[in-house]
Structures are given as C-alpha cells and as structure tokens.
Amino acid sequence: MSILIEHCGECGRPNNQQKRRITQGMKQFLINLYNLDKKNPEVEYWHFRTVLTNNSVGLDYALNSRFGLIERKGYTISNSLCAGYWRITKLGIDFVEGKASVAKYLYIRLGEIVGESKEKIYIDQVGKKRFSIEELLNENEEENENG
To answer: What is the pLDDT of residues 6-25, one digit of tens each?
Structure first.
C-alpha cells in the first residue's frame, strides 16, 4: 500500500485533507488548563509549558483551538512575548464539565478547516478506543480514494 500525497501547485505544501480528532494528550492538556484556570482565576493566559505536565501526552495540544476549546493570546512578530500562551474558552470549560460536545472529527486541508463530522462527542468519549494501526491505515486509504 502506498499513500499518494498531492502538493499545492502554488506553495508546495501537502494538499491532502486530514481527518483530526481530539486525542488523549489534547484532552489532558485541556483538563490541566481547566484546573489551572479554576485555581488561579486572576491569570488570563497560561504558557503551554506550565500546562504540560508528566501526564500530558504529545504536543498536539494546539489543535484544541481548532475545536474552539482554547484560544491563543494574540501573537505578532512585534509582540513575540505572547508566543505560547493559551486560555480555555467557555466551550472548553463546558466540554471539560461534560455540558457540551464537539465534532468528533475536523477535516483540515492546507491548515484550514474545510469541514467537520456530524457526529459529536463528549469529553468522556475521548480516548476510550484503543489504537489500531490497521484502522488508521484503512482511514488513510479511504480518504485518499474519496479525495
């Protein structure tokens, strides 16, 4: 099996659509941020290194922002001291508390969200499924066939 990767004719970046879900590491980052926020409500934004702990897995925490669960402090070249600072959103709080759901999958192409699944999930459903390399490879094959 080979996975065909198309590239954008203008910028050369991979042009394949990605199917992204909330991972266990993203969930743990969100819970850590929620707990920090509750204990220290006077702090508006937290640096990611403060939020990451030994029980955080991976560095895909920023994808939480694509689901609307966290937001980054405004970052510009002239204001680089803001880099890496995040806060939890109202949706993020409600998600952690089990009061809100989000799309199970987001579809991303060239860094932009191009769609989302109709199926929704709650936080207690994140990470319940064991990892299966066969299923992951089958998903990639289906995505490449469906474009």
So the answer is: 666 676 666 677 889 988 88
